[in-house]
Each structure stands twice: as structure tokens, then as C-alpha cells.
Specification:
This protein has about 220 residues and is mainly α. Helices cover about 80% and strands about 0% of the residues. It contains eight helices and no strands.
């Protein structure tokens, strides 16, 4: 039977951990969007000095576990004099990870736009960068948003891994209280509930955003 007294008493503490989880998720998302956009544009570039590093970044991140990447940033970098601390290490690790997946999503969205759109922009004497900014990216946005939304939802759940680098977010908060209450079921149940609330809310907001961006294309 559930111990409702434990749930009522400790829920506010887990809620604070959920707030930190949300902060990490949003900051990592912003970093991931920036990294993904830069990497996608570089990979589409004809310049090998831009294309090859971008392709290597995407390959490396997508070929290695997120947990290992977090360990390298948090435990490995201090050996060469770079100590970022748990919060910054978590945000950078998650941001770089989701950025690699965003890069392929953004690249796919850009490639899906018909070549005639670029040719039309060129006929109006637009530069490549201006055409990308005003013509291609706005159209690609409606293709990009759904998969990037899925990446964000996965990112929220992946924040649980930063508990392994001593960042006291939702998962580690639950684990710490388990040690004093001996109530793992109640603690993990509350954590699961809060993760579900965050991911469901994100899904609903993203669905509204997707509907707004696709409204003008029906």
C-alpha cells in the first residue's frame, strides 16, 4: 500500500528537483538548437573545412552513449584543467548531444525544400545566406518542428542521467530521499509522475506550435 504521508511530505522537495530538471532541459534545448543549426548548415556547405568537422561531430555524438559523453565532460576535462562544475557540464553535455540529432533533423528539413525555391531566390538577386534565412528556413520549419519536438521530449527524460555527475535534479533528489525513508516505490512514483507532467506539457505546447506553423500551408 502507498504511504500517502511520505508522498505528501516529500512531494514539494521533488517538485524543486523537477524545476531544476526543466531549467536544464530548456538551456540544453537552446544550446542544442544552436549547435544543430550550425552543424546542419556546415554539413550542407561545399567547403570541406566546414563540412568535415560538422560530419565528424554528428557522427561522434550519435555513435557514443550520452552517459559516456557526460562523464568525459565532468570527470575527464578537469584532468586538462577545465572544470565546468555539474550544472554547466550537464547542460553542455545534453546540449551537444541533442544538437547532433537536431542537426540531421534540420538538414533533412532544408533538403526537403524544392531546389526551385533556391533558384527563385537567386533570380531575385538574393545571396545564399539571405535566401536560406528568408526563403528556405521558414519553409523547412514546418518539417523540422515535429521531430525536434520529439528530441526535446527525449531530452527531458535524458536529464535523469545528469544525476550521475552529482547534479541534484529530480532523479537524484528521489534517490537521496529513498536513503532516509526506505520508500523507493513512492519516491520513484512521484518522480515518474513529474516527468510525465513535464513531457506531456511539452507535447501539448509543441502540438500547438506545429499547428500554427502549418496553418499557412494547408
Amino acid at each position: 500500500m502507498l504511504d500517502w504521508g511520505v508522498i505528501v511530505h516529500y512531494f514539494p522537495f521533488l517538485l524543486k528537483g523537477a524545476v531544476l530538471t526543466l531549467q536544464i532541459s530548456i538551456l540544453s534545448l537552446l544550446l542544442g538548437i544552436a549547435c544543430g543549426l550550425i552543424a546542419a548548415l556546415c554539413k550542407l556547405s561545399k567547403n570541406p573545412l566546414l563540412r568535415w568537422p560538422a560530419a565528424f561531430y554528428i557522427w561522434l555524438i550519435r555513435s557514443t552513449p550520452l552517459l559516456v559523453q557526460l562523464f568525459i565532460i565532468y570527470f575527464g576535462l578537469p584532468q586538462i584543467g577545465i572544470d565546468l562544475g555539474p550544472f554547466l557540464s550537464g547542460v553542455i553535455g545534453l546540449g551537444l548531444n541533442v544538437g547532433a540529432y537536431n542537426a540531421e533533423t534540420i538538414r533533412g528539413g532544408i533538403v526537403s525544400i524544392p531546389v526551385g525555391q533556391t533558384e527563385a531566390a537567386r533570380s531575385l538577386a538574393m545571396s545564399s545566406s539571405l535566401a536560406m534565412r528568408r526563403i528556405i528556413l521558414p519553409q523547412a520549419l514546418r518539417v523540422i518542428i515535429p521531430p525536434m519536438g520529439n528530441n526535446f521530449i527525449i531530452l527531458i527524460k535524458d536529464t535523469s542521467l545528469v544525476s550521475t555527475i552529482t547534479l541534484v535534479e529530480l532523479t537524484l533528489t528521489a534517490q537521496r530521499f529513498i536513503g532516509s525513508t526506505y520508500k523507493p516505490f513512492e519516491m520513484y512514483l512521484m518522480a515518474a509522475f513529474l516527468y510525465a507532467v513535464m513531457t506531456t506539457t511539452a507535447s501539448l505546447l509543441l502540438a500547438k506550435l506545429e499547428k500554427r506553423t502549418s496553418r499557412g500551408h494547408r
